[in-house]
Design goal:
This protein is mostly helical. About 50% of the residues lie in helices and about 0% in strands. A 3-stranded antiparallel β-sheet has the order 1-2-3, with no helix packed on it.
Length: about 325
């Protein structure tokens, strides 16, 4: 208890000195995260706030009571190792990013001169992510419709046809559709962008009979907005019915981006349509275009004279 009292007294003395010089007291990590959440709650997405709140409540691993200027790289490494005992490496990288975000915010506010620790993210083995196969898209949507959840089926089509996030389908409105130009402009997005997205004829034909002059496009049976994750159950059932694995609400958005890329749309245009601030973010959504790779291999084979002469795989001489 004496040691804790001495530390508290030393901190109070240092804080008083900083205040006398017109500087802010240096917060503990717990205090910093609380300040970040309260400051950013009105201006960032609910999912972003949720992630930082989970960090504050569940994943400080003894760092919460430390002043942020005294947290070292060794402290962060030890805490990350504790996190890895119960969580996957990919989540540890998210943990580090959230911490770094809070510390850089403190630097911008001149609470501390620089981030006092440095830590590289763990290298994760990349895995192919699923996209909805074009040949099975109609079958998969039929499995969605067969569940009888009309509003959810509508939201899923908005994700496939416009690349909307699930949360953006919850807030989608009829008045944001320009029926003459066949575009949809999301009015409430994660990054506060308002970029018109072209609506293909199939989606226009699907929505036109349901058209309302104004109001939400997707509501539950009580006329209210759905809660987060409302499409997941329907998507999992459609996956099981069609034998397609790995499709999630966010992978429908990835399917939209990948198919635009395969159709030859420049990445700068895909970036705008996806409402990403950086093309690097867009590139993470794009899966490998195998058909384009096959076409390239065929061209190389022709130049080298390796033209197939038979279905058995025999090659002609150069």
């Amino acid at each position: 208890m004496r040691r804790r009292a001495e530390l508290a007294a030393a901190r109070a003395f240092e804080d008083a000195e900083r205040l006398a010089r017109g500087l802010q007291p240096i917060p503990t990590l717990r205090e910093l995260l609380q300040q970040w959440i309260e400051t950013h709650r009105p201006i960032v997405s609910a999912s972003h706030i949720k992630g930082m709140d989970e960090l504050l409540r569940l994943h400080l691993y003894g760092l919460g009571a430390l002043r942020i200027d005294r947290i070292t790289t060794a402290d962060i490494e030890d805490s990350r190792n504790q996190h890895l005992q119960a969580h996957a490496p990919a989540t540890a990288n998210h943990w580090v990013r959230r911490l770094r975000l809070a510390f850089k915010w403190a630097v911008r506010r001149k609470v501390i001169p620089e981030v006092p620790w440095a830590l590289k993210e763990i290298k994760i083995q990349s895995r192919p992510r699923a996209i909805l196969p074009a040949a099975k898209a109609s079958q998969w949507l039929a499995a969605v419709d067969a569940q009888g959840r009309t509003a959810i089926a509508r939201a899923i089509r908005l994700m496939i046809g416009l690349g909307l996030r699930e949360n953006e389908t919850r807030t989608a409105r009829w008045e944001w559709i320009d029926w003459e130009r066949q575009t949809y402009t999301p009015g409430k997005t994660k990054g506060r962008e308002a970029v018109p997205v072209p609506m293909h004829g199939w989606l226009v034909d699907y929505l036109r009979p349901l058209r309302e002059p104004a109001g939400p496009i997707v509501v539950n049976k009580y006329g209210n907005e759905y809660s987060a994750g409302f499409t997941s159950r329907t998507i999992k059932a459609a996956n099981a019915a069609t034998g397609i694995e790995g499709i999630t609400p966010h992978r429908l958005r990835g399917t939209f981006a990948t198919m635009l890329s395969e159709a030859g749309v420049p990445i700068q245009t895909i970036q705008k349509v996806m409402r990403h601030k950086s093309p690097l973010t867009t590139m993470k959504y794009l899966e490998l275009d195998l058909e384009q790779a096959v076409r390239g291999q065929n061209q190389i084979a022709q130049k080298l004279g390796f033209n197939r002469q038979s279905s058995g795989g025999e090659s002609g001489e150069a």
